[in-house]
Design brief:
heterodimer, A: 412 residues, alpha/beta, OB fold (Dihydrolipoamide Acetyltransferase, E2P), Rossmann fold, 9 helices, 46% helix, B: 63 residues, mainly alpha, 0% strand, elongated
Chain lengths: 412, 63
């Protein structure tokens, strides 16, 4: 006989009754969380999965929730015990009521949690990651990088709005030693599931201009305990360990270190402590520079003194040297003057001599001298006669003698 | 251009040599004597000036 078909409500109600009968007690469940979402009404909605051990494919999945009144207690308890917020990716052990609703279907309602199990799982995961890093031989790579003498150009990975980033910046810029720093933020998500890809991307950006930076600082938010789960990642750890610049972490967790704290070059507790570490490092170098400065000043002073003495020696030498040069030049000038005067005198004497000679010559040819010897000059009509044919019978001539003149008549 | 000490003394030397060689005629003498005297004066003054400059320069850093 054909049964009367059931309505959907009747079917779902039947399933509900069956489940309620099958699970009249709560069950402890051990599963991985894939989603944790707190609603505005205070309830927290979860999603559990199980992956196969070998292939990693999802073999079971269930929705769940923690009602607002329970969520407050569970959240506080879990955070107090683990120092972390419940988040996706965690392995948890929870006490659940298996429920079925005619409208919402199958779901697991969480009533209690065992934080120790999650802690154990995290510790196990960390151990595994560290072992893997050691096997790969990269665990100590960042630690072995030498810290540059100057830590001045700092690439910071943090969230722009994080209090820690502000603390770090203020601490660096307000240092009382007047040290100057070049700090640039490479924003990254610092909590939740996206920590890993986000920080790796920031590291890659820094690596594109690596020579600009002396070190990388990874810091995150303020005092509130929040989610550090994402920092325990093998891929992130590998990236940090093998990064070519020293990485300083100030993740800010009082309870224990994350994997990246363990493999980074230097680990400090807070962003402020990271800034202090850098300032302290610079200060040590500043003292070295000051010592060098003093040595330099001393060396300069000694050299200047040496040169002063040398210059003084020259100062004393130069006048003496110039004096002898001057004397030499003066002698040269005096000699020239003497030669010049002598030359002039010689010329005058020569000319005088020439004139005297000419005078003598002239004098020796003067007729007066001849006439004094008894010679006479005969002139006719004023013209001297040197040929007898120039004269006629009875010509009257003038006879000039050394002393006086007389007249005579020509007789032929 | 102002003449240098070296130029002046060389010129003086030339004039004296010319006088000594007897090549100089009497009419040129008057002109050359004037020039020679100017050159001698110039050279002597230049030497004195340089000596004074040296003294001044060397005294400066000690002041």
């Amino acid at each position: 006989m054909l049964m009367k078909p059931l309505t959907l409500y009747e079917l779902n109600h039947l399933v509900r009754k069956t489940i309620n009968n099958g699970f009249y007690e709560t069950v402890w469940l051990q599963s991985e969380l894939i989603d944790v979402r707190q609603n505005s009404n205070g309830h927290c909605y979860l999603e559990f999965i199980q992956k196969s051990n070998d292939s990693g494919t999802i073999i079971a999945k269930a929705k769940g929730q923690v009602w607002a009144n329970n969520w407050k207690i569970i959240q506080q308890y879990f955070e107090k015990e683990t120092g972390m917020t419940l988040s996706a990716g965690m392995l948890v052990m929870v006490e659940v009521e298996v429920t079925f609703s005619e409208i919402y279907g199958y779901s697991l309602s969480v009533v209690d949690i065992n934080p120790t199990f999650t802690l154990g799982d995290i510790a196990r995961r960390r151990r595994e990651i560290i072992m893997k890093l050691k096997e790969e031989g990269v665990a100590d790579m960042n630690k072995e990088l030498p810290l540059p003498t100057l830590l001045q150009n700092i690439a910071v990975i943090s969230t722009e709005t994080a209090a820690g980033w502000g603390d770090f910046r203020n601490q660096l810029s307000s240092n009382k030693y007047g040290l100057k720093f070049n700090v640039q933020l490479f924003p990254a998500i610092m909590q939740g599931e996206n920590v890993e890809p986000s920080i790796i991307q920031a590291l890659n950006t820094i690596a594109t201009d690596i020579s600009k930076w002396d070190a990388v600082v990874i810091i995150r938010g303020g005092g509130a305990t929040s989610d550090l789960y994402g920092f325990d990642s093998l891929l992130l750890a590998e990236n940090i360990a093998q990064f070519p610049l020293p990485i300083i972490t100030g993740i800010g967790h009082e309870r224990d270190d994350t994997i990246i704290d363990l493999i980074s070059h230097t680990r400090v507790k807070t962003p402020t402590a990271a800034a202090e570490f850098i300032i302290h490092h610079q200060l040590e170098n500043l003292n070295d520079v000051k010592l060098l400065e003093e040595r330099l000043m001393n060396a300069v002073y000694i050299n200047i003194n040496k040169e002063k003495i040398r210059i003084d020696r020259y100062i004393n030498k130069i006048p003496t040297l110039f004096h002898s040069y001057k004397t030499k030049e003066e002698n040269k000038l005096n000699l020239l003057q003497i030669r010049y005067k002598t030359g002039l005198q010689n010329i005058i004497v020569n000319h005088k001599h020439k004139i005297a000679l000419l005078e003598t010559k002239l004098q020796s040819n003067d007729p007066i001298h001849v006439m004094k010897l008894g010679y006479s000059i005969i002139r006719h009509n004023g013209k001297a006669i040197n040929d007898v044919s120039q004269l006629e019978e009875n010509d009257i001539v003038d006879i000039h003698m050394a002393k006086g003149t007389t007249k005579a008549k020509v007789i032929k | 251009m102002e003449q240098t000490y070296e130029q002046a003394i060389n010129k003086l030397e030339q004039i004296v040599q010319k006088i000594e060689s007897g090549e100089m005629n009497v009419d040129d003498l008057a002109q050359n004597i004037k020039e020679a005297q100017q050159l001698i004066k110039f050279c002597k003054e230049k030497l004195i000036k340089v000596e004074e400059d040296i003294q001044n320069v060397l005294q400066e850093p000690q002041q």
